[in-house]
């Protein structure tokens, strides 16, 4: 296994210097994001003690994913994904500096946290899909699965380190140091993106209006069945399963009787499992059926976690969930680009990224439901519904219902 991992690394996307720069920028962004997320969620919950307040923060932080993601593809086509990513990183770095000063100065408040959360949400809606686009632009089509898997692998590593480190900092020093460290990491990310030498503008994209470009992408989605399945499963996961992360403080404190350290460890659980599962994708394995079965298992495991009352049982469930989630998410991100015609690839990835914009509405609905029936039953019910739908899709994919789209060929002369 070790030899296989070594071959995967040495013979893959890491041979590209530009990909290595992109990978470093992504690591800095994601490490800062996880440290900030633990500190921000705990600060809001500590000030209010309300799942509804956590839902409100999640709504304002993630609604921009729904609003802006459809335009990320046209923006990247017209101006270049690198420029879009650079602007997002600069904005997030400024927000982190403001938040650090506010917490250190003792004038932090819920409205201010909401405003900062909105700023981070805008940046995240831009830098997520553009980093995936730049993976393709730095390594090419043949190494795309390897590049996306390695990109996700470093993200999973940051998910292991970041929350645990954030929980320790939060417990020993406070939120000001956590937010300050995020600001430093984002400044490093800005510099790495600045020196990145990739121009991903598409020919002819500068002539089309943003709305016409978006309409063309929607038209391609209507005739491309494999991409529709990629987008649908992303929407299901974002609407019914991923919201559990926003309510992690509730599970820790109410279900398990834990505190900051336990919160950081639970955030790391999925990341630990992902370190195993992503090697499957990095080796170039997996198809639509594998992606769907992995997604169904992941959704069922998150439902079981929501009902866990023992910390170590919950932690173990999240580790196993991380293994299958890495396969589900890594394959889905690769397939949505591989199944798209080249001229529509950026727009399909933008529409795919819209799925995260549905989470805010789920936050609000689940937050209210949790206050009435409890966090565990509400989250487990949502995950159960998602599992059933994806199992049906997985059975159909196994029977060959969703054939992969062949690589686009140049027009005949």
Features:
single chain, 413 residues, mainly alpha, 16 helices, globular, disordered N terminus, disordered C terminus
Explain what the structure shows:
The chain has 16 helices and no strands. With 413 residues, it is an all-alpha fold. The chain has one domain: MFS general substrate transporter like domains (Growth Hormone, Chain: A, Up-down Bundle). α5 packs antiparallel against α14. The chain is globular, with a radius of gyration of 20 Å. The N terminus and C terminus are likely disordered.
Q: What's the story with the biggest beta sheet?
A: none
Amino-to-carboxy terminus distance:
48 Å
Which percent range describes the beta-strand content? under 5%
Total number of helical segments?
16
Total domains: 1
Succession of helices and strands: HHHHHHHHHHHHHHHH
Task: Give the CATH H-level superfamily.
Answer: MFS general substrate transporter like domains
Kindly summarize this structure in a few lines.
This protein is mostly helical.
Topology:
Blueprint: H1 2-10, H2 17-48, H3 51-79, H4 81-105, H5 110-139, H6 144-172, H7 175-194, H8 210-223, H9 225-240, H10 248-255, H11 260-282, H12 288-306, H13 311-338, H14 345-353, H15 359-373, H16 375-398
